[in-house]
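Budget justification aside, the reviewers requested a transparent look at the raw inputs and outputs of the sequence design task funded under Objective 1. We therefore reproduce one unedited record. The lines immediately below are the structure tokens for a 423-residue chain.
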């Protein structure tokens, strides 16, 4: 058997995991100061949660979903977070609770695509969603939150690109305008865009192929085709972003990959990862709930790629999470001292004093102190036959190199006191 993780899926451990954990904690701090509460949904959902919501024509459903057939059900490893979130909201009637509600999730997602830098088959996403609020202020707040997250990590090299994708009243006319524009050039579009032409011509605008990009640059922009309601919404979002002191640029190519967006769409891009690439993005999706057969539900959200955020932090080398080292190293000399320190060690762990001990009573003092240094313990406790007889132990300060003789019966209090002074 070959010992290897599934392609495009990574194990996390050691220093890299420490950075992830630190990043996660910092993220939770920002999210909670913006009033967002966590929600957790299962990794597996019914295929219908994504099929009916995302629309058959999208790449995700076409070839990227991991599916499991079990007892005549087709289950899917979630490829994105929003559909499962809305499924949970509708199932538990969270939208019936009064007032604006803010949720976030931090979960792994799964897509069977070609693995590359910053794009894995199992990837972690932080999503934030505001429901029950159709105001442009909600959109602006959410963009300001994503902006605050990158600022919190002192990331400065990114752009906030915003756009409006219209609504079901004004988008169809714009789609027709776009098709009229692209029709004479159909042959110069890439194969995928030719497929998109009939049903999702907007998606041609965010194609990364040079030939498509060149054509898209001269295409009519949607912001000139918005209905008056969408226009009012969009200009309010823009002015609220200015009020919130969020720098942004208007980018008509932001259409988002998924079809359920309406009005506000946005993307945060950065050159920090080499080519211009997305750090995160989102938009308004009031119509998503209707595809579950429910009433329209005002909702706006974003997704942030954790792998990319952590990669940026690694490049910056600014954030070094504190190393976890034991407070005390236990160094028994002889079997009797070993027996004593074993039970003391467990007792100290119970009261929250981290400690380590080599489970080998034969080791000599020199080897033990070497081990204490290797694990970077702050203190070492040395206990031998002489100390045992006099009811004392030696406490060695590993950094200062000093040591003192203390009462064995007070060992817990001594260490608790020292740890308190150290923190
Ligand atoms: Zn509209
Ligand atoms: Zn294309």
């Amino acid at each position: 058997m070959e010992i290897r993780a599934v392609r495009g899926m990574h194990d996390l451990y050691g220093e890299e995991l420490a950075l992830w954990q630190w990043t996660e904690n910092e993220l939770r701090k920002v999210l909670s100061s913006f009033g967002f509460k966590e929600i957790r949904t299962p990794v597996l959902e019914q295929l219908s949660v994504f099929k009916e919501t995302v629309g058959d024509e999208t790449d995700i459903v076409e070839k990227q979903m991991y599916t499991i057939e079990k007892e005549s059900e087709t289950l899917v490893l979630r490829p994105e977070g929003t559909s499962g979130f809305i499924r949970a909201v509708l199932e538990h009637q969270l939208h019936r609770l009064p007032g604006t509600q803010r949720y976030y999730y931090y979960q792994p997602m799964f897509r069977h695509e070609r693995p590359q830098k910053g794009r894995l088959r199992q990837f972690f996403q932080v999503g934030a969603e505001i429901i029950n609020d159709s105001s442009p202020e909600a959109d602006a707040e959410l963009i300001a939150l994503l902006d605050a997250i990158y600022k919190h990590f002192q990331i400065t090299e990114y752009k906030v690109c915003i756009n409006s994708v219209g609504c079901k009243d004004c988008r169809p006319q714009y789609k027709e305008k776009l098709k009229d524009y692209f029709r004479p050039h159909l042959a110069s579009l890439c194969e995928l865009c030719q497929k998109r032409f009939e049903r999702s011509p907007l998606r041609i605008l965010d194609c990364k192929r040079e030939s498509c990009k060149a054509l898209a640059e001269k295409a009519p922009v949607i912001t000139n085709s918005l209905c008056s309601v969408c226009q009012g919404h969009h200009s309010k979002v823009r002015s609220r972003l200015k009020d919130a002191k969020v720098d942004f640029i208007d980018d008509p190519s932001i259409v988002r990959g998924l079809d359920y967006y309406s009005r506000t769409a946005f993307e945060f891009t950065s050159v920090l990862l080499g080519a211009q690439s997305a750090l995160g993005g989102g938009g308004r999706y009031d119509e998503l709930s209707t595809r579950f057969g429910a009433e329209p539900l005002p909702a706006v959200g974003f997704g942030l790629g954790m792998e990319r955020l952590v990669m940026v932090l690694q490049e910056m080398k600014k954030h070094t999470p504190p190393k976890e080292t034991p407070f005390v190293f236990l160094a028994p000399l002889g079997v009797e001292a070993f027996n004593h320190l074993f039970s003391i060690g467990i007792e100290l762990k119970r009261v929250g004093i981290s400690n380590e001990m080599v489970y080998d009573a034969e080791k000599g003092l020199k080897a033990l102190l070497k081990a204490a240094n290797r694990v970077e313990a702050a203190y070492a406790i040395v206990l031998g036959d002489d100390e045992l007889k006099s009811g004392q132990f030696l406490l060695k300060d590993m950094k200062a190199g000093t040591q003192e003789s203390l009462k064995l019966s007070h060992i817990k209090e001594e260490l608790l006191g020292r740890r308190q002074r150290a923190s």
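Residues 189-190, 192-193, 207, 209, 212 surround zinc ion (ligand 2) (CB under 6 Å). The chain has a mean pLDDT of 91. Computational costs for records of this kind are itemized in the attached budget.
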